[in-house]
């Protein structure tokens, strides 16, 4: 049995797409277990950047199976577009891409409601892809799963109920009867598109495990965006943490072998919410430009800051991380000095553990340690010993601060631009 979870340690955009692309060569199955097309996983394919939002990054290898498990919410319009883009690149998904019967469908009204909610009350800065409203329906027990969508009668009854239930929020914003008409008109196109993909993915995973296949679980978002352990309410509506695999893919906890955390050498966040290490100066601008820190899903400029070891240590703990891959180290190579946040300070009290209080999260000041800049090239280096000595020290210090081993370092966008510090690890 060989299963590996690859997940984000910060607020998303840690470079999970590239890491999954790197490791999926060794895997047989790649499984998404939460989130939806709010994710934007950038890979380099035939020398060009290529973004996947929903389909697991392993799809670029023709012999791999890619699954969307029950914990994911699926936008059929966006999925269809993604399948078409792949087809243009001669990547065939038929017979190797499957969607759980129990995955909930994101419907047009979820996207409309996401937009309406963003215009009032607490603005989260969501991707407006309908993620939160679709998960809300799941929890409310009024959601439409892929299996429900395939049975026209069931779908029509549920649609009717949902539109009545949602009338209060939709009225005055859109023409509800028009929306219903359009959804029924589109039904045949989308249900026929969906039908061949729908399967019992939890069972497929069990059979794969029993057959000694290698399975990689790919998270979207990151631990600090986790619904329970992130900066609530400025989070996504699912559980990217390792525990999310059990409920999100229908796999028992004793079947999970290892967890690899993906952590960026500095920090970014997109959307609203507390961000103690945020930089508003030229260093922040430098990281944004050098790191190409613009949202792969929404194009929004990402907020940039120094490495936050308080947040990452918290993520190491809730996911029981032993192994990390540090990404985008090359994007820091021109800095004269580097800061690392080692604690938060609020009202003269020092916090070493990530605080749950919204007030402390919002108003805490970062306590920094300073290190000299790398003073040398990081890119094109192929082993740890050839990195500038200050870069080596930075890596070692981050390990001490967060309490996990950095076994891989990514130094560029291309799949092969990865330094294996610990060559003895077999990921599967
Ligand atoms: P990947 O997989 C970065 C953020 C949004 C917003 C919050 C809630 O590329 O790392 P949602 O639309 O999920 O309800 O928005 O979560 N967010 C992400 N930020 N990377 C992502 O995914 C994100 N997915 C959601 O910006 O702050
Ligand atoms: Mg993203």
Strand order of the largest sheet: 9-7-5-2-10-1-11-15-19-20
Bound molecules: 6-O-phosphoryl inosine monophosphate, magnesium ion
- Inertia-based shape: globular
Mean pLDDT: 96
Strand residue content: 15-25%
Instruction: Please give the domain count.
Output: 3
Instruction: Calculate Rg over CA atoms.
Output: 22 Å
Structural class: alpha/beta
Percent range for helical residues?
A: 25-40%
Jot down its keywords.
428 residues; alpha/beta; Adenylosuccinate Synthetase, Chain A, domain 1; Adenylosuccinate Synthetase, subunit A, domain 2; Adenylosuccinate Synthetase, Chain A, domain 3; 3 domains; ten-stranded mixed beta sheet; four-stranded mixed beta sheet; 14 helices; 21% strand; binds 6-O-phosphoryl inosine monophosphate; binds magnesium ion
